[in-house]
Design brief:
By secondary structure, the protein is mostly helical. The chain has 2 helices and no strands. Helix 1 runs antiparallel to helix 2.
């Protein structure tokens, strides 16, 4: 037959429990360790914020460099197209002049010859823009 009475619980003897003073010391140590850990966490968070700011600065500069490089690439492509056009035009003009002279057509080409003679210098100037010297190393 079941009993309505609860069985008594066996508690350890009081000597087996740490003293209140020992518990307070352990709590103090844990609180000190928690405070140190919080300080270290704050330091790491500040360092992380500094690194994030530096990364943002680097990304901004890289974006500017990439944009500048794209502009330079576009300018080089445009200059290259102009050089090609000038080279083709000079060859065509010289061929037409030679054909006119060969046909015996009396045409004064003195001004045209002078203009054509200037094309190689213009092309050389443009070629110099195409391949600039590398930048000097930073000190």
């Amino acid at each position: 037959m079941p009993s309505d009475e609860a069985e008594p619980v066996a508690y350890p003897a009081p000597a087996a429990y740490p003293s209140l003073w020992t518990l307070q010391q352990q709590l103090n140590i844990v609180q000190q360790q928690q405070s140190i850990a919080e300080q270290q966490l704050n330091t790491v968070q500040r360092q992380l914020a500094t690194i994030q700011q530096q990364l943002n600065t680097i990304n901004t500069k890289a974006d500017k460099i990439m944009t500048a490089q794209e502009d330079i690439d576009a300018a080089v492509a445009a200059i290259s197209a102009i050089v090609t056009d000038l080279t083709t035009a000079a060859a065509n003009i010289q061929a037409e002049i030679a054909a006119l002279i060969a046909a015996g057509t009396p045409v004064d080409t003195t001004a045209l010859d002078a203009a054509v003679a200037q094309l190689p210098a213009a092309q050389a100037a443009i070629d110099a823009l195409e391949t600039p010297p590398p930048p000097a190393p930073a000190p």
